[in-house]
Design brief:
mainly beta; four-stranded antiparallel beta sheet
């Protein structure tokens, strides 16, 4: 079974940082791109950042300068480093992988930024 498993979510204080991990598993798992999206109540799901096979990255406007997406050489693990956290960063964060069989989504992990 092809699956993405996320970890690292939780409660963080404003100004703090977080690091999320996403691990792809399954005998057929393969990805041309991996990345992160997020969704807050009442808002559309938005891009946080993605990374493709050649290492190119794309970030959403709301996190530019604060977010870094990285991956392992095999493109089976993706990471999100997000610094200078703000209350507006509170959201469910979803890992995504683009595989030859279609998009794969993680279950989502909640990040809450509050004092």
């Amino acid at each position: 079974q092809v699956q993405l498993v996320e970890s690292g979510g939780g409660s963080v204080q404003p100004g703090g940082s977080l690091r999320l991990s996403c691990v792809g598993s399954g005998s057929h798992f393969s990805a041309r791109a991996m990345g992160w999206y997020r969704q807050s109540p009442g808002k559309e799901r938005e891009l946080v950042g993605i990374i493709v096979v050649n290492g190119q990255t794309v970030y959403g406007d709301s996190v530019k300068g604060r977010a870094t997406v990285s991956r392992d050489k095999a493109m089976k693990t993706a990471y999100l480093q997000l610094n200078n956290l703000k209350p507006e960063d509170t959201a469910v964060y979803y890992c995504n992988a683009k595989s030859p069989y279609g998009d794969i989504w993680g279950q989502g992990t909640l990040v809450t930024v509050s004092s």
